[in-house]
Design a protein that fits this description.
Number of helices: 18
Strand order of the largest sheet: 2-8-4-5-6
Strand content: 5-15%
Largest sheet: 5 strands, antiparallel
CATH class of the largest domain: Mainly Alpha
CATH topology of the largest domain: Rhopdopsin 7-helix transmembrane proteins
Number of strands: 9
Order of helices and strands: HEEEHEHHEHEHEEHHEHHHHHHHHHH
CATH architecture of the largest domain: Up-down Bundle
Distance between the termini: 103 Å
Structural class: alpha+beta
Number of domains: 2
Radius of gyration: 43 Å
Shape: elongated
Helix content: 55-70%
């Protein structure tokens, strides 16, 4: 049961890491006056950051506004500083030149762009033709600042149109932009003083100005944190295609000897192949377009939820021995459908909320806790069913089927041990550390659980593959009963394994032994009666007669003497 609890905890932790969480590189949003906007992404060195503004030029010219757009770019060696800092706290870091903690090193660069009117704001151009300096973040130690306070030239050549900044190393970056509209200078000083320099939100919202921020590395929007995961999905897509081709080949070759559970395995392979293909296509879309289609990602999450639900049902019915030990599931079918449907519903809700950004609400919490509870029940059910199936095969002494389930059990034990090691590693690398420096290995936290299930699926495929001898694994009631009767009648059995069981073959032996015992007891009684009642010698017969006569004579004499 220790293995079960650890495996349950590993599955619960893994359920939090299966959602689509790729980094986008293109943002389009409506700007708000005097309110900053925070953009986060891991960048390669020499990646370019672009800004572009769009809106109605005529409506903007009527307001007679000037615009001051300032930006602040900050890198850090700590992944959690960039991605786990709330927006409110991140906005307070605008213009900050010191570290949050002593060992959280990094660099920063900042600048501003002044637009004299709406025409210059809405006309794309090269904003900067000179380099922007990069400064290391100050540490509490002044000597360290003196040794490392250096500036660098970000631009190596003429910047592209709309380029405002450039990354200087491969690390997580935080890009903060503040948009500040200002009224144009008026000929009448009194009127200018009467106007407030801070334009209201209603005034700017009527302008419908949108800002587009994109972070690009050469010709694509790839991210160093997501690139390994995209390659992983590509490889897994190829692996599932090979799984499907191999399984289809086996089904065609041995279509006369197929088992019902083999069709379940084929369905899981098809869903896994589609899931990996959809996720890989979404990563490719982000790579070349900078953003993903939300509807396509929602479809991928729903497909992943369906695949995970069917995968859990598959492992359960294998553990129950469906088609191998049990001819049918019987009353277990409603419970299987209920568990699969509940897991499908809650995992779909969780995935959709993650994609749409509403994962932090009450509904998301309920969905997450429900998934954890369902996973706990599923894992407990799997191990209990597996132990019962193995025990039944040991009683029947079916060596072929028992060997199959022993290999399957060993696979689950290996999964448990691998899960324990991986949980310890991820906890030390990502959970209990103050600064997450190993952000390049974050993709493993998602890939491991998918790879682990693929390994279990491969073992199930090998153990239950279609073959000429597939019927050895199928349930055959008549043969099983005859084998049981022959085994009970002819072969000796261990008392430990068959304690408390009644056997037909033992009835005649018990009856015969009872007869022998009754015979022996009756003979003993007869002998005892003979010894007590039948004399064995002449002395034994005559001596009691003599003794009786002498006693009678003595008694007669005594009575006569009393009368006289």
């Amino acid at each position: 049961m220790t293995y079960v609890s650890v495996f349950l905890s590993s599955l619960l932790l893994s359920s939090l890491c299966l959602a689509f969480g790729a980094e986008v590189s293109l943002w389009t949003l409506d700007v708000s006056p005097h309110i900053g906007h925070v953009f986060r992404k891991t960048l390669y060195a020499n990646s370019t950051i672009f800004m572009k503004f769009q809106g109605h030029l005529a409506a903007c010219e009527e307001k007679k506004l000037a615009f001051n757009v300032s930006w602040y770019l900050r890198s850090s060696v700590c992944y959690n500083e960039v991605f786990n800092t709330p927006d409110n706290n991140a906005l307070s870091m605008f213009g900050m030149d010191h570290r949050l903690k002593e060992d959280w090193t990094g660099s920063y660069s900042q600048g501003y762009i002044y637009f004299e009117n709406c025409s210059s704001l809405l006309t794309p151009k090269a904003y900067y033709k000179v380099f922007q300096p990069v400064f290391p973040l100050n540490s509490p130690n002044p000597e360290e600042d003196k040794a490392s306070n250096q500036t660098g030239n970000v631009w190596e050549s003429e910047p592209d149109v709309g380029a405002v900044a450039k990354s200087w190393s491969q690390s997580p970056y935080m890009f903060i932009v503040k948009f500040q509209p200002e009224p144009l200078p008026d000929a009448s000083r009194g009127r200018r003083e009467a106007e407030d320099k801070n334009v209201s939100s209603d005034s700017l919202s009527k302008l419908s100005i949108t800002m587009t921020v994109e972070m690009k590395h050469h010709d694509d929007y790839s991210s160093p944190a997501d690139w390994p995961l995209m390659m992983f999905f590509m490889v897994m897509c190829i692996v599932y295609v090979l799984f499907g081709a191999l399984w289809l080949f086996w089904l065609i070759c041995y279509w006369r000897d197929l088992l019902r559970i083999q069709f379940w395995i084929g369905a899981v392979i098809i869903l896994g192949m589609l899931e990996k293909a959809v996720f890989y296509s979404e990563y490719q879309s982000i790579r070349y377009q900078g953003e993903y289609d939300q509807s396509a990602v929602i479809f991928a999450e729903l497909l992943s939820a369906l695949k995970r639900s069917l995968a859990r049902i598959l492992v359960i019915i294998v553990s129950l021995g469906y088609g191998i030990v049990r001819p049918r599931l019987g009353t277990t079918v409603p419970r299987l459908l209920a568990v699969g449907l509940l897991y499908l519903i809650f995992s779909s809700v969780e995935g959709v909320l993650r994609v749409t950004g509403g994962f932090y609400g009450t509904v998301a919490l309920v969905a997450n806790l429900s998934l954890s509870l369902i996973d706990s029940c599923v894992m407990w059910w799997i191990f209990i069913s597996l132990s019962q199936t193995t025990r039944l095969l040991k009683l029947r002494r079916n060596v072929v089927k028992l060997s199959l389930y022993q290999h399957f059990t060993n696979t689950l034990i290996f999964s448990v041990l691998a899960s324990i090691i991986f949980i310890i590693w991820t906890t030390r690398q990502f959970k209990i550390v103050g600064c997450q420096r190993a952000w390049r290995e974050l993709w493993v936290d998602d890939a491991f659980w998918r790879l682990l299930f693929s390994t279990i699926l491969l073992v199930i495929m090998v153990l239950l593959r279609p073959s000429v001898n597939s019927q050895r694994f199928s349930h055959s009631p008549l043969i099983d009963e005859e084998d049981d009767e022959d085994d009970e009648a002819k072969e000796p059995m261990l008392n430990e394994a068959f304690e408390g069981m009644k056997m037909r073959g033992a009835k005649s032996e018990t009856h015969t032994s009872q007869k022998l015992l009754s015979k022996e007891s009756s003979q003993d009684d007869d002998l005892k009666w003979v010894e007590e009642n039948i004399p064995t010698t002449v002395v034994d017969v005559a001596l009691p007669v003599v003794l009786d006569e002498e006693e009678e004579l003595l008694n007669t004499k005594m009575e006569r003497s009393k009368m006289e």
